[in-house]
Backbone:
C-alpha cells in the first residue's frame, strides 16, 4: 500500500509511520520539524516531506508532489491552542483551525483523484461533544475552543465527504487521551494527568490503522467503537456553509 501520513514527525502520526513501515507499507509523511522528520525517515525508510500545513499554499505544494496510486491518507497533523489570544497564520486563519481542519480538507480534496478505488481516509478528531462548540467558521477562537471548533468542522466535513464519495472509506477517529508532545506547553497538572492516564501512541496508531486494514461501516469512531456525534441544532446548515467556505478557500489559495 502507498500511504500518506500527516503529523508523522511526532506522537500519534509518528507511531502510524512506524507501524505501517514495519508492516511493509510505503509511507510518505509530512511535518514541520526537519530533524525529527529525517530521523524517523532514516529509522523507518519512509519518505519525509517538510511543510507547514497551517498554510493553505503549502498544502497545495505538498499535494502536487503526489501521484496515483494512493491507498490511504492518515491525517494526524494538529495542535491545541494554549494562548490567551488566538494565533493567526500569515494567511489570516486561526492556526488550530487551519492545521487541524483546513489542512485535512485541503489535502484530502486535492488528492481525491490520486486515490485508488476503496481507498481510505482516516482523520484524527475530537471526542464528539460539540453541543457548545462555536460554528462561526471565520472567527478565530483561542485555547481549547479552537480545537473543539476544528474537530466539529472535521467531523461535519467527513460526514459530507462520505456521502459524496461512497466508494471511499471515510473515517474520523478519536483515540482518547494519548501521551504525546501535544500537551508539553500545558500546565503541570494536565501534563501529570496525561503521563498517568494517557495511552501509548502505538495504541492510538492501532485504532487508526485498523480502519485502513479492515472494512468498517460508519464514519466516526472512538478507539474501536462507533461514535455518535453530539451536534449543535444548526448542524445541517452550518455544515453546508462550512463546505462552501472551505471550497472557496481552496480556490483562493491554489
Ligand atoms: N494526544 C491526545 O491525547 C489526542 C487526543 C485526541 C486528539 N488528538 C489530536 O491528534 C493530533 C496529533 O496530536 P499528537 O497528540 O500526536 O501531538 P504531537 O505529538 O504534538 O504531534 C503533532 C504532529 O502534528 C504536526 N503538526 C502540527 N502543526 C503542524 C503544522 N502547522 N504543519 C505540519 N505539521 C504540523 C507536528 O509536526 P512537527 O512536530 O514537525 O511540527 C507533529 O508531527 C492533534 O490534532 C491532536 O489534537 C490528540
Residues:
Amino acid at each position: 500500500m502507498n500511504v500518506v501520513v500527516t503529523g508523522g514527525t511526532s506522537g500519534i502520526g509518528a507511531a502510524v509511520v512506524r507501524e505501517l513501515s514495519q508492516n511493509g507499507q510505503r509511507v510518505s509523511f509530512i511535518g514541520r520539524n526537519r530533524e525529527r522528520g529525517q530521523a524517523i525517515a532514516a529509522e523507518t525508510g519512509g519518505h519525509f516531506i517538510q511543510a507547514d500545513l497551517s498554510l493553505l499554499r503549502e498544502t497545495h505544494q505538498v499535494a502536487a508532489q503526489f501521484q496515483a496510486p494512493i491507498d490511504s491518507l492518515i491525517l494526524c497533523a494538529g495542535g491545541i491552542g494554549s494562548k490567551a489570544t488566538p494565533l493567526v497564520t500569515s494567511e489570516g486563519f486561526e492556526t488550530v483551525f487551519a492545521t487541524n481542519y483546513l489542512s485535512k480538507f485541503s489535502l484530502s480534496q486535492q488528492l481525491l483523484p490520486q486515490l485508488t478505488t476503496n481507498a481510505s481516509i482516516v482523520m484524527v478528531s475530537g471526542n464528539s461533544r460539540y453541543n457548545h462548540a462555536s460554528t462561526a467558521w471565520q472567527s478565530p477562537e483561542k485555547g481549547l475552543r479552537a480545537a473543539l471548533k476544528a474537530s466539529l468542522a472535521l467531523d461535519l466535513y467527513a460526514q459530507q465527504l462520505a456521502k459524496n464519495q461512497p466508494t471511499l472509506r471515510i473515517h474520523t477517529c478519536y483515540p482518547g487521551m494519548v501521551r504525546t508532545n501535544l500537551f508539553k506547553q500545558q500546565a503541570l497538572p494536565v501534563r501529570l494527568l496525561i503521563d498517568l492516564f494517557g495511552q501509548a501512541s502505538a495504541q492510538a496508531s492501532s485504532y487508526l490503522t485498523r480502519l485502513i486494514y479492515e472494512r468498517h461501516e460508519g464514519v466516526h469512531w472512538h478507539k474501536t467503537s462507533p461514535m455518535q456525534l453530539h451536534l449543535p441544532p444548526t448542524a445541517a446548515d452550518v455544515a453546508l456553509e462550512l463546505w462552501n467556505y472551505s471550497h472557496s478557500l481552496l480556490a483562493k489559495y491554489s
Q: What stands out?
A: The first strand starts at residue 2 and ends at 6.
